Amino acid sequence: MKKLGAIFIAGLLVTMFGCVSSGEYNARLSDIDNLKKDVSGLDAKLKQKEAEKAAVEAELAKLNMELENLKKQNKTLADDNAGLDNLLKAKKDELSAKVSELRGKLSEKETELAAKNTELDALKKQIAALTQEKDALNQEKEKALREKEKSVAEMKKTYDSLMGEMNSEIKKGEITITQLKDKLSVNLVEQILFDSGSAEIKKDGKKVLERVAEILKKVADKQVRVEGHTDNVPIGPRLQDRFPSNWELSAARATNVAKYLQDKGIDPKLLSACGYSQYRPVALNDTDEGKAKNRRIEIALIPKEIDRVVEEGTQK
Q: What is the CATH number of the domain that holds 265?
């Protein structure tokens, strides 16, 4: 710009001094000075504008750099956003799968709970039934205990009656009477009822049995079991035609006593007869005294329930 200004001024000088007067020359010099001043002002303005341009260009470069940074940040944010979207989608898918799994487990648990509730209801019903059955059994047990107590009391009464009625025979050792709770036994030795080797009841024996029957026929809720017992001495040759062994002799004696008690008023439905031969001794058979004790008729009063148990066992 300076070179152009100098050339311009030189051109003007040549033109002006080519053919002008001194006044005009001075005026022209004055114009040249003014032009110089204008050029200087223009140069200053030009420099200012160039400085401003440089500042603007610098600002523009800075803004371009910031723009590029913003673009990079925007891309980074876009990438981050895409990553977050992918992560969010993955989390949503994972959560959806977890929810489906939990719903499946919940359904299984609900089914299991329903089954447990059904089982619990069944158990409650079973418990209620068992409780009811238990109450019924307790009532039945209480009733049975009351009946047993009553039976024992009646048996004691019968025992006392027999003890009083048979006092003389008891003292002689011909009869023994025992009571164990609700079972009562009247034990009669052979000599008071039978002759040796015979099953026929003696006259004195019938009198004794008649007295026993008077007391026993008042007992209506007991079984009257007549048992025949012998010692271990085999049947002699003279009697073997009638009684091949002690089995037949013990059974015949028990049967005859039972029939006689029936004749004296005891209900035959309550009577039973059985022979045990020599196999249920109450004493040793190595002395005459022991053998005499084993040869006996035993009249036992026992609860009817025993009959029912035997009958039920036989039916099975």
A: 3.30.1330.60
